[in-house]
Design a protein that fits this description.
Blueprint (H helix, E strand, L loop, with lengths): L4 E5 L3 H12 L4 E5 L2 H10 L4 E4 L8 H8 L6 E6 L4 H10 L3 E4 L4 H15 L7 E4 L2 E4 L4 E4 L2 E2 L4 H12 L4 E3 H8 L8 H15 L9 E4 L3 E4 L1
Parallel strand pairs: 1-2, 1-3, 3-4, 4-5
Antiparallel strand pairs: 6-7, 7-8, 8-9, 10-12, 11-12
Helix pairs in contact: 2-3, 6-8
Length: about 220
């Protein structure tokens, strides 16, 4: 039994009840808050392993609650919202959301996203070797292998892969990746990113046209699986 604690911040009683049933049946312990203020107090008094946060709260915007949480809370926050515009999704991810799911959501997808986030929470930041199926990344030696064969990556390709790997399962927006890899002045240069993602896929994917590691989140960014 995992018994990881999850805080649900949502003003809809039906959604809270549904999430309670889903999560408790999968051995998670659930805490509930129906306002942003209540959620902030509960998170501060008893920090959970993960937070499920709605955007449309009655007292304050979920975006504001997310921003407040990110001043001190460093574990995963998944947004669950009926708001599905590209602007809302990008804003939440750039503010610090780990992931974003729109309502109505599929139970299995929600549980998979939660498992991925909790795995990342429990990852030792000092870990130097990451293994993803046939891929192996050694951050100490800066060596990347696929099926035990060393891949020849450019410095930019390596940095991009490293950023993806250290954020496994998380949606990274175009702006975030561009800022991290090229700097603040390049945050609108999405063509740079498309080119390097394309060349990186050719080196690490079995089928670059149907990638299993670097997944496109249309209009938002990329997710590394």
């Amino acid at each position: 039994m995992n018994k990881a604690e999850i805080l649900v911040i949502d003003d809809e009683p039906q959604i809270r009840k549904l999430l309670e049933i889903i999560l408790e049946s999968n051995d998670y312990k659930v805490w509930q808050a129906e306002t942003g203020k209540e959620g902030l107090i509960m998170a501060a008094n008893h920090p959970p392993e993960l937070i499920l946060l709605d955007i449309g709260l009655p007292d304050r915007s979920g975006h504001e609650i997310l921003k407040d949480l990110r001043t001190w809370y460093n574990k995963s926050i998944i947004i669950l919202s009926v708001q599905n515009s590209e602007e809302d999704i990008v804003r939440a991810l750039d503010t610090g959301a780990t992931d974003y799911l729109t309502k109505p959501f599929r139970t299995n997808e929600l549980l998979a996203r939660i498992r991925s986030c909790i795995r990342k929470n429990n990852t030792d930041d000092s870990k130097s070797i990451f293994i993803f199926d046939e891929l192996q990344i050694d951050f100490l030696s800066r060596i990347v292998k696929k099926n035990e064969t060393i891949l020849k990556l450019t410095s930019t390709e390596y940095n991009l892969l490293g950023l993806f790997a250290r954020n496994e399962g998380r949606v990274l927006t175009h702006q975030f990746i561009l800022k991290e890899i090229w700097g603040v002045g390049y945050q609108t240069e999405t063509q740079y990113l498309r080119v390097f993602v394309g060349t990186l896929r050719k080196k690490i994917e079995d089928n670059p046209n149907d990638p299993k590691h670097i997944i496109t989140e249309s209009g938002v960014g990329y997710r590394f699986n």
